[in-house]
Give the backbone structure.
Amino acid sequence: MKILLFEWKKLWKSKAFILLLLVSMILIAGLFIRNYIYQDIVKSQKIEMYQDHASNVLSQLMGDQEDRREIGEGVDPILEEKVEVGSSLYGKHEELITAINEDEEITALQLENETYDLAIKYHSLEKNYPLSKIDMEDEIRLNEELLMKQLPKENLNASIQPAVFMKQVIQLLLNTFGFLILIVIIGTPMIKEFDDNTIRLTYGLPISSRRMVLSKWGGLVLSGMTWFGIVLLFTYFIVATFGKELPNPFEYPFYTEQMNFILGEDYIQQSIIFGMLYLLTLTALFVWLMFLMKNTLVVHLVILFLFLINFLVIKSGFVYPFLPWSYQELDVVTLQQKQASWIGVFLNIGITTLLLLLAITSSKRREYVK
């Protein structure tokens, strides 16, 4: 325990780690301020979007009305239906714009569904509408979920709603770039012991290879978990204190890759579990590479290469929740399915154990003891 605390305290003396914590909190606070400022902009953009849609419908409606005047009313039943649906759709857009403008968010959800129902019918009459039928059906499903929970719809890229903002932070910080920076910063002080030969002091201690490896791994895990926890706790503190006040914000539904819904609370819980498991494996990998290669530059290059390859694989769509390396992109892997994979949990623990055994084997090369 003493050597574990020693390794952890040694890292806390690193200015780079303290700077990482400060920069992370500054980025989170800056993102929240940006989202807060954007609230009126998001509202204006939504109004502008529906105004454009209404203009599109109006131009077609005026053309249909002109055609009806030329041939006479009641002559073409299909044309009559186009005019009727077009008029209703245009009027529904006006109601929707008014509701958004007056911040009647729940009413706006119902009106949006009614608007899309009419727009789908308008599509069936071979008329144009800016959104596809599939997109509108997806929005209707989401709106129905939100109406059941009495939650307003949020812009996922600019929200101050607790669940949505926490998801945005997870997406922007707990990813390839964030984890890469973390492991480089917390791992560098340890690997440098091989560069400056201060590792001799550790090898000279009356401790077993197993204890030495586990103490260094434990120090990395504690540091990684500290950063991980501070990011999430600070995010929650910011958004809970200054964000949108709602009775059940963490019941906000997010679409998964299979187009099912995962609640905000489940998304965050799974992200925490996946993130902690990934840190266990990542730090074990670093410890093994450290004892295997014993060179800061080489280890960093190997880690960078592995991160880049894994990032390209994930972006290509090869994401499986039971594979530990998929957790490098927490948001992506969490949204793969509604339920967490227990196979992934056990496989992660197994791979972590294997990496630590490899590290113990590599650490038995006592060439530093003269």
In short: Strands lie at 253-255, 261-263.
